[in-house]
């Protein structure tokens, strides 16, 4: 028998009903067998099933031999969550258990589920996690970057100006950064990261984790950008960037070094050398070099 939840009685593998409440079920990001036994029990026992993509959840249940039967299967996604949540809250208030699964990974981690969970909490209903797969944590474990402190930043804005402001705001964070990105924008994101963070910052791009064509590319932003340049990639992508240096370079020191470099080389080369030496964003150093160019 599974241990009882502090929020109320739990369930057993014997098929007893779940206690009323919302069960947030993490589902595989690739390999179907990554689902937990507890998640399977919840999906088999819940009175109502809700999903970001009902077809995906139905297929997952078929793979693991879990019948839907006559239980409701409700679509809850970004476009209808506000409207669908009251119906599910009402069902829980009437004593029903509701299992919610996003299309892949953990609900609310760049996926729907937050309005529904907040509505349940506001109504005094239990919200229970069935933890499991998460692309962000999976990528962190294989990235080779520090894992003692990390910041999940989700998707960067698509618009160029907003994306630049967004990345500049993350530049000095003292934690490994985790971003999601679409295949169509990965090359542009890597270029923008190089400009905002400096080309020498360590990074890792994880693609199609736990799937057949899983790929992890590690190196500096310059190296990883070069590795992805011109590639037509597909699949789910997680980008991780090493934390900012604990000690920031003294502006007087690097400007003095820049002046010496400008005596011997072009503005572009001087800016690149100083940015790399002091672990500074090349774009910022380049702007100063333009004003001081000799």
CATH architecture of the largest domain: 3-Layer(aba) Sandwich
- What share of the residues does DSSP label as strand, in percent? 15-25%
The biggest sheet, with number of strands, parallel, antiparallel or mixed sense and barrel status, is: 5 strands, parallel
Succession of helices and strands: EHEHEHEHEHEHEHEEHEHHH
Helix content: 25-40%
CATH class of the largest domain: Alpha Beta
Summarize model confidence as the mean pLDDT. 90
Number of helices: 11
Structure, described:
- The structure is a single chain.
- The chain folds into 3 domains: 21-133, 3-Layer(aba) Sandwich (Cobalt-precorrin-4 Transmethylase, domain 1); 136-241, Methyltransferase, Cobalt-precorrin-4 Transmethylase, Domain 2; 251-292.
- The chain is an alpha/beta fold.
- α6 links the parallel β6 and β7.
- The strands form 2 sheets. Strands 3-2-4-1-5 form a 5-stranded parallel beta sheet, sandwiched between helices.
- The longest helix has 13 residues, at 81-93.
- Mean pLDDT is 90; it is low at 1-14.
- The protein has helices at 37-45, 54-63, 81-93, 114-122, 135-143, 160-170, 186-197, 221-228, 251-262, 267-277, 282-292; strands spanning 21-25, 48-51, 73-75, 97-101, 127-130, 150-155, 176-181, 202-207, 215-220, 237-241.
Short description:
The chain is an alpha/beta fold and 294 residues long. It is built from eleven helices and ten strands.
SSE layout and pairings?
Elements: E1 21-25, H1 37-45, E2 48-51, H2 54-63, E3 73-75, H3 81-93, E4 97-101, H4 114-122, E5 127-130, H5 135-143, E6 150-155, H6 160-170, E7 176-181, H7 186-197, E8 202-207, E9 215-220, H8 221-228, E10 237-241, H9 251-262, H10 267-277, H11 282-292
Helix pairs in contact: 3-4, 6-7, 7-8, 9-10, 9-11, 10-11
